[in-house]
Amino acid sequence: MTDTSAHPYEEISIDQQLALRTAATRLAEEFAGVYAAETIERFLHSSYDQFATASTIPHYLPLLAERFARQRLQALARVEGHHRDGRPVVLFLCTHNAGRSQMALGFFTYLAGDRAVAWSGGSEPGITLIPAAIAAMAERGIDISEEFPKPWTDEVVRAADVVVTMGCGDACPVFPGTRYENWDLDDPAGLDTAAVRPIRDEVERRVRRLLDDLHVHATR
Fold this sequence. Notes:
There is one protein chain. The protein is of the alpha/beta class. It folds into two domains: 9-79, Helicase, Ruva Protein, domain 3 (Orthogonal Bundle), CATH 1.10.8.1060; 89-213, Rossmann fold. The chain has seven helices and four strands, in the order αααβαβααββα. A four-stranded parallel beta sheet has the order 2-1-3-4. Helix 1 (14-30) packs across helix 2 (37-52), helix 1 packs parallel to helix 3 (61-79) and helix 2 (37-52) crosses helix 3. One of its GO terms (biological process) is response to arsenic-containing substance.
């Protein structure tokens, strides 16, 4: 994790400074009694830095940073034993976190409801999701348009009970004691919606099988 404890607010626009401070306040309230303000600020700023160099939509950077920091803090809380609810955690990883892993996350969340937790990440995160993947999932009544490509971090991988890899090869992280599965799926990048549908359907089949393995009853 990048150490950004000295992250200078003055290098960010006034609007983004305000948005980040508001995000820090929200996160501090959510994690009150678990993590100190300094830890939350560090995670928020390092999450901001993850997107600042690649994002083409600066206005949304504080929101992306807040969402990613929240996920990382939730993961760290699980790793450190601050939060145990018995729900299995699955992490879906691919190269750009723009197609396969996002479709898997969409199906898993849709089918598992609140009985399991799922996250996703990429070894070389893209900027936006693949439009054909969004369209193909919408045909199944699942909206993934609000998701965003993001990297994985150590705490997120360590918090997972199962890590599903899809094409990230040697770049995928390996931690002892974690269950790994590799799903050999075509990359939807550059394909139209019709060509993505078979990939989408195979992703759904594998997600349903994974839920069965985890003894999580699919809601649909």
